[in-house]
Amino acid sequence: MRFIVDMNLSPDWVPEFKTNGYEAKHWSKTGKVDAEDIEILFWAKENKYIVFTNDLDFGSLLASTQGNFPSIFQVRTHDVTPGHLASLVFKTLKQFKDHLERGAIVTLDERKARIRILPIK
User: Fold this and answer.
1) How far is CA 91 from the centre of its chain?
2) Cα torsion for 112, 51, 104, 95, to the nearest 10°?
């Protein structure tokens, strides 16, 4: 799986993904830092990347377009640093790997993970 790390998350996530066997890029190294979410979404779809974010707008965009890809992995905590969340993120990625590869939105907080299969109707 390949991940594009959204601007609202630290570039420090990129080496964490790589250490755990995933390809990852931070959006700041890929596109305009002030890009709209829809631009990131279309880039991810075209390039077959999963969006890693803590922004809820991506789910709304997918719902409005009834898109079935890219998948979105949202972290919903106050502390979104790799030092705080990495072990939980990578445990959850393994749990939902098949769904993320086919098209899903995974939302993770410190207590639970939820999944919505795409497209959202």
Assistant:
1) 14
2) -50
Looking up tokens 């390809």 gives 23
Supply 107's token pair. 């939302």
Neighbours of 26 (CB within 10 A): 19
CATH node for 2-117:
3.40.50
pLDDT at 2 over 80: yes
Q: Domain locations in the chain?
A: 2-117
pLDDT at position 121 over 80 = no
> Residue 114 pairs with which residues in a beta bridge?
107
Model confidence at 77: pLDDT above 80 = yes
CB 110 within 8 A of CB 88: yes
Question: What is the identity of the amino acid at 50?
Answer: I
DSSP string over 57-116? HHHHHHHHHT---S-EEEE-SS---HHHHHHHHHHHHHHTHHHHHHSEEEEE-SS-EEEE
